[in-house]
Amino acid sequence: SLFIRTSGCNLRCAWAGSDGNGSPCDTPYSSHSPEKNMMETEDVLLIARRNMDGIKHIVISGGEPLIQSAAVADLLKYTKHYRIHSTVETNGTKYDPKVSDNVNLISISPKLSSSTPWEPNLVNTGITYKEKWAIKHEKNRINIKAIQSYINDCWDVEYMKNEPDVIWKKERKHPDIKDFQLKFVVAELQDVIEIEEILEKLTGFKPSDVILMPEGVTTESTMEKAQWIAREAIMR
């Protein structure tokens, strides 16, 4: 896949690492300290076309791509026209029908309470604690309506507009045309409980649509968490 990374995010994720240090998101240069390299959409398309070289998949990530939704929608119209499979990675806080209409896979990663950048989550990260950002993150990190809208768009609902409450009983669109996944970063057991609470508010998904990704900085800590996360997932 060819990756296009946007800069800027409406959240500021950071976790408490198992070593006592903070663990910010893996792309702080596009969120906590966003780098600026302003480009016109046409220039991004030109660079992408020059570097495709047989690649048939484009992933648009961030930061949070949906804070630049108009530009992202334009990029997706290009990928759709040239039959290039597209993925947009989003935290699910913002919904844009033009993005949803043109993307093949919407990868939604709702942020759990363990990701809120309270001061302990920023220890030895070099990132200055800002209470206003922690409060803003905690307030905005989950948008059930936006997440559900993306899920709904992956179902064939043209003939059942009068039955929105039974959408999960209808047919999913072919995954090559439009699909979604719910990807959660898990740092502690409480996260699994919180995920269940979020899923109870959503409809139209299968267990195979839900991905649990262990939080970690080192291979060792990531693998350690992966083992108990897998056990918890199997139990459910």
From TrEMBL:
Pfam families (UniProt xref): Radical_SAM (PF04055)
Sorted UniProt keywords: 4Fe-4S, Iron, Iron-sulfur, Metal-binding, S-adenosyl-L-methionine
Gene3D superfamilies named in the record: Aldolase class I
Residues of the Radical SAM core domain: 1-236
Family annotation (PROSITE patterns): RADICAL_SAM (PS51918)
Molecular function GO labels: 4 iron, 4 sulfur cluster binding; catalytic activity; metal ion binding
InterPro entries: Aldolase_TIM (IPR013785), rSAM (IPR007197), rSAM_sf (IPR058240)
PANTHER family: 7-CARBOXY-7-DEAZAGUANINE SYNTHASE (PTHR42836)
Protein name: Radical SAM core domain-containing protein
Origin species: marine sediment metagenome
The organism's taxonomic lineage, starting at the top: unclassified sequences, metagenomes, ecological metagenomes
